[in-house]
Amino acid sequence: MNVRSFRLSDYMPATELLQASLSEECCEKTLEAFARQLSLDGELVVVAEMEQDGETSIVGIAIGTVDRDNGYYYRLAVHPEYRSQGVGRALVAKLEQKFQQRKVKNIMIAVDEHTEVVLPFFEQLGYGAQYVMRSLQKLRIVTG
Question: Where does residue 126 fall: left (phi above 0), alpha (psi -120 to 50 degrees), or beta otherwise?
Fold first, then answer.
């Protein structure tokens, strides 16, 4: 598995991954935020790719954002066929590294109704309740 920064050529495979991994409503919301984040700061979008039968495919994506001094995990998606294989863990580690390079003061999980299901996963990685940002307002996708 290789985890790397998003490239423009990843757009269609990443979109297909999001469609395969998320509910229709979540995917629609994520695609809007994904496009916004790419236009502002594509370095905070990372993908995991695996090679199988001589072909490389994107099997996971993590979308992050920075707002002021805070880094946020906005969305994490792993193709259903590749779950429980360390893909999510690798994506979080790569995005955390990018947040640390930006010297953010806090790394948080942006939680909405679609993110609740991954909170136990983040807890396993050491992100307890104090790292969860719940808001009725939309998280602004901005650069710091």
Answer: left
The residues pairing with 60 across neighbouring beta strands, listed in sequence order, are 48, 78
The residue to which tokens 């650069």 are assigned:
143
Q: Which residues contact 141 (CB under 8 A, 6 or more apart)?
A: 33, 36, 37, 40, 65, 74
Buried b / exposed e over 126-138, threshold 16 CB at 10 Å, is ebeeebbeeeeee
pTM: 0.84
On whether the CB atoms of residues 112 and 28 are closer than 8 A, the answer is: no
User: What is the tens place of the pLDDT at every residue in 68-115?
Assistant: 888 999 899 999 999 999 999 999 999 999 999 999 998 988 877 777
List, in sequence order, every beta strand (DSSP E) within the chain: 2-5, 45-52, 55-67, 70-78, 106-111, 132-134
* Coil, strand or helix at 83: coil
- Of the candidates 48, 58, 66, the one whose C-alpha atom is nearest the C-alpha of residue 141 is 66
Q: Residue 82: CB partners within 8 Å, gap ≥ 6?
A: 50, 59, 60
